């Protein structure tokens, strides 16, 4: 049996501020949240070793060299925009640094696995602010990206239509799925990609796509690994952890 891959998971952390007004007085409060717990729980439950780099640490602490990236079999990114990878404090101070998007493409070409989850700062993202369009990330993904805001809000909810029932990422994941999804990123399938599932109600937009790129593999998930994209009912479904673990294992050639 193949050894479980080692994973670097980056993203899914936010800091929010709130300003409270009371008559002529006002004060501000801040809160920090990490939303990657469902994915992390799936890794832990399936005995998959991982390191976590929350969004606020990506600019400075995400690997700077191909050698450091290769310490991991799979790199998973969720809700981290392009600028966070490209503009570090050293960049702001005028120092030249490696282009980590180019390094990620080389990492996959040389055998690594890459997963991008959907979200407001994934793919093209809200108001185009994630903007991985025309970057090395778009090259390595099994989908092309929109030029403009790619979010599709689906408050009525949907479940994907499975079109590749025998794909390894679906091992042990029965139909029908339980729960629903409330938003996704609109993606354009590449000709050579395996489209595992689609969103039938929305012109068969890709829901889950995979392919081989160089010696490596990549997966694009049009939905987030947390809410609101994935509703709690799906996230708490007893087979969701299996799906998440399968995605990582396939990327790391463990299945």
Walkthrough of the structure:
The chain is of the alpha/beta class and 255 residues long. It has a single domain, classed as Class I glutamine amidotransferase (GATase) domain (Rossmann fold, 3-Layer(aba) Sandwich). It is 24% helix and 31% strand. It contains 9 helices and 14 strands. The chain has helices spanning 37-45, 55-61, 66-69, 82-86, 89-92, 100-109, 136-140, 232-235, 240-251; strands spanning 7-11, 13-22, 25-34, 50-53, 74-78, 113-117, 143-144, 151-158, 161-162, 181-185, 188-189, 194-199, 205-213, 216-221. The chain has an 8-stranded mixed sheet, with helices on both faces. Helix 1 crosses helix 9. The longest helix has 12 residues, at 240-251. The radius of gyration is 18 Å and the shape is globular. The model has no long low-confidence stretch (mean pLDDT 96).
- Radius of gyration over alpha carbons? 18 Å
User: Per DSSP, what share of the residues sits in E-state strands of 2 or more residues?
Assistant: 25-35%
The largest β sheet comes out as: 8 strands, mixed
**CATH homologous group name:** Class I glutamine amidotransferase (GATase) domain
> CA-to-CA gap between the ends?
9 Å
Q: Order of strands across the widest beta sheet?
A: 4-1-5-6-14-13-12-9
Number of strands: 14
The SSE order reads: EEEHEHHEHHHEHEEEEEEEEHH
Name the average pLDDT.
Answer: 96
How does the overall form come out from the CA principal axes?
A: globular
